[in-house]
Design brief:
Layout: E1 32-35, E2 44-47, E3 55-61, E4 64-67, H1 69-72, E5 80-87, E6 96-102, E7 113-117, E8 123-125, H2 127-130, E9 138-144, E10 153-158, E11 191-197, E12 200-203, E13 218-224, E14 233-238, E15 245-249, E16 255-257, H3 259-262, E17 266-267, E18 273-276, E19 285-288, H4 296-302, H5 308-316, E20 322-323, E21 327-331, E22 337-339, H6 341-344, E23 352-358, E24 367-372, H7 381-398, H8 404-408, E25 416-417, E26 419-423, E27 429-431, E28 441-442, E29 444-450, E30 459-464, E31 470-472, H9 476-480, E32 483-490, E33 502-507, E34 510-515, E35 519-520, E36 524-525, E37 530-535, E38 542-546, E39 552-555, E40 563-567, E41 586-589, E42 621-624, E43 633-636, E44 645-649, E45 655-658, H10 661-664, E46 671-677, E47 686-691, E48 706-710, E49 716-718, E50 729-736, E51 745-752, E52 764-768, E53 774-776, H11 778-781, H12 783-786, E54 790-797, E55 806-814, E56 817-822, E57 827-830, E58 841-842, E59 845-849, E60 858-862, E61 878-883, E62 892-899, E63 902-905, H13 909-915, H14 918-922, H15 926-930, H16 934-937, H17 940-943, ...
Parallel strand pairs: 17-20, 32-40
Antiparallel strand pairs: 1-2, 2-3, 3-4, 5-6, 6-7, 7-8, 9-10, 10-11, 11-12, 13-14, 14-15, 15-16, 18-19, 19-21, 21-22, 23-24, 24-26, 25-28, 26-27, 29-30, 30-31, 32-37, 33-34, 33-38, 35-36, 38-39, 41-73, 42-43, 43-44, 44-45, 46-47, 47-48, 48-49, 50-51, 51-52, 52-53, 54-55, 55-56, 55-58, 56-57, ...
Length: 1078
């Protein structure tokens, strides 16, 4: 809006003494606070300025504001002001103002200020009196009662300008900033906690368990009850070095950083952050912003990703899994989050600052607002590679030094529109900014929301650099007429505004949750009046308010479309711990299985620009009675130095490892597919072990199939004449007597040709001679089977109802294919037009079961999922182009994705030219490279000879069989799309006669650009009897796994069923199926 009276502009220009070269956070901008400073019912506005005067605007109503800063006592000095928060620090019922400062590295002139409200539209600066005149590089503070003593304490985040290149990835997380061996002017960083002792704040950082370290480049602080115990926890988002922190309140005045327990990965350059419930389940979710460019051009001209060496070095130093992306952490209700930003469509918003989650259209779902843009494109690749370098050389040659500020002025400027994402109510968001009126490009930093005109929807104030602040009036109520309800809470004692209170509103079958913590986003503070959008709901069932001291108040018959002032009672009952202790479907059981120990192989060293490693595909398990005692035994495949292990079950249900010399001679092998089957028809189970690892050359000894024959007592001997030489990485081996001679034959699927990702390996059909010796007939029975692709999964199942099993094969860069054996023709014939033929996925597994009870076997197919960095679709396929592009007798692979109908390279120019130096010769600048599809990078005649593979369908799904070789595809539930599906175990979990699905996923072996898939903790899908599945909450399943799940093996023991989950480089986990939950 214009003509509001808010005439504010945060001007930030590089000068000779103050600039972004000398001060890393020069472009971080200012903040916004919204709150009612005079208790007249109208929220007022405070805006901070980096180099100018801070401004306080009194709300006069009807979007008219009066600048009262000077007469209110807001000091105008040369402080570099950053964050701001309104809080009643002295507990008198009036909002005070705390202003943070940074910068001024040479002078140290950066003491924070506390303005105490005089109740007459004036303030007195009193920071020293309260112990809060801190001189540091402060980004923001949050006031809340962490120790439950009734007054507000202060958590402060700072961002030291210590040069990152001086840290050398040294992890000194617990070294207090005062003890760092650096110049004093570089100190003043880290997190700090100040306890309020009767109106004076005392630092308790170290004794409270807070990391007061310089490596914490804090940009966001978010307070909320993360674990639901009624005590406030703290999340800190750290910029581009240290990982983020999640301080869980230990209820004794201390915190414990539990981030690595709660989150599988975080943003790399975490900027602003916010905590709110995005799916109305009553649990807090968390959003962080980063700097991932939002389109292909910006990515290739300003983007960068860690190479694998740097990523692994930081990982080994304890900096955890950090990726360049926004993260939307969905609460899993079991003490963990799962990042769903790629699935939700909010992973990339360019150089982003303030992050706010609030209901912008009053439809009952929290939306996302992101402040965008940086004053100069300091990561512009061409500027760094060319202009800056050229300028330096000119200075050397001429002997004339160019002023730094003049150099900085040459960096390009690219203002960007702020991003607005409408919550669709299904974990997906729609980019709706332009439709809602957010079209102006800007360099925006802090933002805050509040109902400035008391009309029942939340308005927005944004602090910009070098242009006027934005004042957005929300017109949602006038347009959509959605309902709302408002609450103004009045706390007891010194916490007069009830910071830390939680509101749960129950209406229309939904839970609407809000937590009253004003400090949010980036350097900003939102209004205290809570507005909850209700959509078309008019009847509120009940409202539950949990006060900061964990007492609660419950209300019914609360009217919609008005604001309710609620006072905390003088006394109240304590809210009980919300932790649920209901029976779960599965319970973890102690076991003796040894850890799978993967050897340290990095595929990216031998192959450039492949998306993921294939050297870590194990372990797999085989289950069966090998010693004839009627009990299930287990074999688990091994790795180099840790050979495969045979565990015999005792009558008491224990599993005892049995040493087998036959296995020990293959200490240098890596096992993937394993299979128990009676190869020689002697009544006992023999063992086939198939190789993998991707670390040996094709046809090497380590890539041979091994068949161990059983003497009937569980003693195994190698039959070295059982198979011909295969020499490939094998993914799957399955048995079926397809030719009907009474002896089991085999399909053995190859995952890859060693060290040649994407090149089609040979797969095998082995016919059994009756003595357990096998001959490959794939090329004669159907050459398409021999050359089918990068196989990940296969199964034999009777799909046609003819009492014969068909062969179903799935893999990467291919569609699922089905082959039926024609005995008369003595060949396998492919089933055509199955409904699956155009679904080119990165299929990881396939299982078969009758899921809809019609007597026909259906297919369940595990895919890469919909939460992946690449977002392929039928109209926007990802492609793999295979050829010798530089004519050096070496095969290269180039990945493209579809941008505006063009096949654009996935990787950045520097990555491509490492693989193909010719790229650099033809594309000197990143801008030139960024505009070229693959068809303009290579000659047409060369491209025409390329093998091109496609990925156009990422979803895991069920294929319902019509009995005539046709299938109807239906996606598995959305929650199952949040990670890949590696293994599917079909069983009736709840004893209702229907086949349910137990699923394991996750893939970690991607390049850092592709992040990692880690949102699966082991999943359970309950069948409705018609082939429809419901995803069960982790709190109901009892499953809590974190690794790359490779196999799920069902074991019977003592009349009970157990599932053994195998994870790469982790201990196996054994779960018992609970009868009581059925």
């Amino acid at each position: 809006m214009e003509n509001t009276g808010v005439n504010f502009q945060n001007d930030v220009e590089d000068g000779s003494k103050d600039n972004s070269f000398l001060f890393r956070n020069f472009y971080n901008g200012g903040g916004v606070a919204i709150g009612d400073i005079n208790n007249d019912g109208l929220p007022d506005i405070f805006l901070t300025s980096n180099a100018g005067a801070n401004k306080l605007y009194l709300n006069k109503g009807d979007f008219k504001f009066d600048d009262i800063g000077e007469r209110a006592g807001i000091i105008k000095d040369d402080k570099w002001n950053t964050g701001v928060v309104f809080a009643d620090v002295n507990g008198d019922g009036w909002l005070d103002i705390y202003v943070c400062s940074s910068g001024h590295m040479s002078t140290g002139n950066r003491k924070n200020k506390l303005y105490i409200n005089n109740h007459n539209l004036t303030f007195t600066e009193s920071a020293a009196q309260y112990g809060l005149d801190i001189s540091a590089y402060t980004t923001q503070v949050s006031f809340f009662d962490y120790d439950m003593d009734g007054d507000l304490d202060c958590f402060m985040i700072n961002n030291s300008p210590v040069p990152v290149n001086q840290l050398e990835f040294s992890n000194r997380r617990d070294l207090p900033e005062k003890e760092w061996p650096v110049a004093d002017f570089l100190k003043g960083g880290g997190d700090h906690l100040f306890r309020n002792d009767n109106g004076h704040f005392v630092e308790v950082t170290k004794q409270a368990g807070i990391h007061g370290t310089l490596i914490s480049f804090g940009l966001g602080v978010s307070v909320g009850d993360i674990n639901g115990d009624g005590y406030p926890d703290v999340f800190v988002s750290n910029d581009s070095y240290e990982r983020d922190y999640l301080y869980i309140n230990q209820k004794d005045g201390t915190f414990k950083d539990e981030l690595e327990d709660w989150m599988q990965h975080t943003s790399f350059s975490s900027m602003g952050a916010d905590i709110a419930d995005i799916n109305n389940d009553g649990y807090p979710d968390l959003f962080t912003t980063d700097m991932l460019p939002l389109n292909d051009y910006r990515l290739k001209t300003t983007g960068a990703f860690d190479n694998i060496d740097l990523f692994n070095a930081k990982l080994k130093s304890g900096f955890y899994y950090q990726y360049t992306q926004n993260c939307l952490q969905l609460n899993n209700k079991n003490g963990m989050f799962k990042d769903i930003a790629n699935y939700s469509g909010v992973c990339a918003t360019d150089w982003s600052w303030g992050a706010l989650m609030f209901d912008m259209d009053n439809d009952g779902w929290n939306d996302i607002y992101v402040c965008n843009g940086v004053n100069r494109d300091v990561t512009n690749l061409d500027f760094m590679n060319f202009f800056a370098d050229e300028t330096y050389h000119k200075m050397v040659l001429s002997g004339k030094k160019r002023e730094v500020d003049q150099l900085l002025k040459q960096i390009p400027r690219t203002p960007l529109p702020n991003k607005v994402y409408r919550n669709n109510g299904n974990l997906k968001f729609t980019d709706i900014g332009s439709t809602w009126g957010f079209t102006q490009a800007s360099f925006s930093n802090g933002a805050a929301y509040g109902d400035l005109d008391n009309d029942g929807d939340l308005d927005l104030v944004v602090n910009n650099e070098n242009q006027p602040a934005f004042i957005y009036k929300n017109n949602a109520r006038e347009i959509n007429h959605n309902n709302y309800v408002g609450f103004s809470l009045r706390g007891r004692g010194k916490n007069s505004f009830a910071i830390g209170s939680k509101i749960k509103l129950f209406a229309g079958g939904e839970i609407f949750t809000r937590e009253l913590v004003p400090s949010r986003g980036f350097q900003s503070s939102v209004d205290y009046k809570i507005i909850i959008g209700l959509g078309k709901v008019t009847l509120i069932d009940s409202v539950l308010i949990t006060w900061p001291d964990r007492t609660f108040s419950k209300f019914q018959n609360i009217a919609a479309n008005e604001v309710h002032i609620i006072h905390q009672p003088a006394q109240g009952n304590l809210m009980q711990d919300s932790a649920q202790h209901e029976p779960t479907f599965f319970s973890a059981v102690k076991n003796n299985f040894e850890k799978h120990e993967e050897n340290d192989v990095t595929d990216f060293y031998t192959e450039r620009n492949i998306p993921r490693m294939l050297s870590r595909e194990g372990p797999k398990a085989a289950v069966g009675d090998v010693n004839g005692d009627g009990l299930d035994d287990v074999f688990i495949g091994g790795t180099p130095g840790h050979p495969g292990q045979l565990y015999l079950q005792t009558p008491g249900g224990e599993f005892i490892k049995r040493e087998e010399r036959a296995f020990e001679q293959f200490m240098d092998f890596e096992d993937v597919a394993v299979l128990f089957f009676d190869c020689d028809h002697d009544g006992d189970l023999d063992l086939l072990v198939c190789p993998g690892g991707n670390n040996s050359a094709a046809n090497n000894r380590e890539l041979q199939l091994r068949l161990f024959k059983n003497d009937g007592k569980g003693n195994f001997t190698l039959d070295d004449a059982a198979f011909p030489n295969t020499g490939l990485n094998i993914s799957v081996a399955i048995a079926n007597d397809f030719n009907g001679d009474g002896y089991p034959d085999l399909f053995v699927g190859s995952r890859s040709f060693p060290r040649l990702y994407g090149v089609t390996p040979e797969s095998f059909l082995f016919v059994n001679d009756g003595q357990g010796h096998f001959r490959d007939v794939a090329k004669t029975k159907n050459p398409d089977i021999a050359n089918i692709g990068m196989v990940c999964g296969a199964v034999w199942a009777d799909l046609l109802g003819d009492a014969q099993k068909e062969l179903i094969i799935a893999g990467e860069w291919m569609a699922p294919r089905i082959f039926a054996f024609d005995k008369a023709a003595d060949k396998f014939e492919e089933q055509k037009n199955t409904g699956l033929q155009n679904l080119f996925g990165w299929w990881q597994t396939v299982s078969a079961a009758d899921v809809n009870g019609d007597g026909k076997a259906d297919l369940i197919l595990g895919n890469i999922g919909e939460n992946f960095y690449l977002q392929p679709s039928e109209k926007k396929p990802v492609k793999l182009w295979i050829n010798d592009y530089d004519q050096n007798n070496s095969v290269e692979k180039i990945m493209t994705y579809t941008v505006d109908g063009k096949d654009m390279p996935v990787f950045l120019k520097k990555d491509m030219e490492d693989q193909l130096p010719s790229i650099k010769k033809a594309n000197l600048k990143n801008e030139a490279y960024s505009k070229k599809p693959i068809q303009e990078l290579f000659p047409g005649d060369l491209l025409s000879k390329s093998v091109v593979k496609e990925l156009n369908y990422p979803s895991s799904c069920v294929a319902i069989n019509d009995g005539h070789g046709k299938f109807k595809v239906q996606r598995l539930p959305p929650m199952e799309q949040l990670s890949c599906v590696n293994v599917i175990h079909c069983m009736d979990v709840n004893s209702d006669g229907h086949i349910d699905l137990v699923i394991g996923g996750n893939q970690f072996g991607f390049l850092p650009q592709f992040e990692r898939l880690d949102a699966s903790t082991g999943d359970l899908l309950i069948n409705n009897g018609r082939g429809g599945f419901t995803w069960e909450d982790a709190s109901h399943t009892g499953l809590k796994l974190r690794g790359e799940m490779r196999d799920i093996a069902e074991i019977n023991s003592g009349g009970k069923k157990f599932l053994l989950f195998l994870q790469n480089n982790e201990y196996p986990v054994l779960y018992q199926l609970n009868e009581s939950k059925k």
